Amino acid sequence: MIRTTSPFVLGYSVLSGPIIWFVHFVAVYSLAEFGCRSNFTNLIFITPETMRLTMIVLTVVSVIGVGFGGILAFRAWSQVRKETSRKESAYEARFHFLTLLGMLLSALFILSILFTVAPAFVLSVCDKAI
């Protein structure tokens, strides 16, 4: 039986992607909606440039947070591969699955974070539909 990584590391590597993506998603769209509702007129510090800068900062922080979870999952996965035998117990198989799941979810949610913020840089934030 192996016990190389704490449950916190497994939990962070699996749950960091969805939680950070959700917070990023809500923050970016709330920021865009607030800027469009205020119409950039009466607020000195709320301009399209500061909105884009804030989105960049939020995106970088989010990608770093999710990437850290992916790195933790990769380190745990490499330890599991070194320490397991050919006949894995159910506990070792579950541990192996959770480390792989953490890596895959981290990669998926990094892409999701980048795709969430991409339209703000390609399209005008407050365009109206035709």
Distance between the termini: 62 Å
Please summarize the sheet with the most strands. none
Q: Using the alpha-carbon principal axes, give the shape.
A: rod-shaped
- The average pLDDT value, as a whole number, equals 83
String of helices and strands? HHH
Helix amount? over 70%
Individual helix count: 3
Low-pLDDT residue intervals, each spanning 5 or more residues:
none
User: How does the helix and strand content classify structurally?
Assistant: mainly alpha
Strand content: under 5%
Secondary structure: number of strands: 0
Q: How many discrete domains?
A: 1
The gyration radius over C-alpha positions equals 20 Å
Keywords:
single chain, 130 residues, mainly alpha, 3 helices, rod-shaped
Overview of this protein structure:
This protein is mainly α and 130 residues long. It has one domain. The protein contains three helices and no strands. The longest helix has 36 residues. The radius of gyration is 20 Å and the shape is rod-shaped.
Could you give a quick summary of the protein structure above?
The protein has 130 residues and is mainly α. The protein has helices at residues 7-38, 48-83, 90-122.
List strands and helices in order, with pairings.
Layout lengths: L6 H32 L9 H36 L6 H33 L8
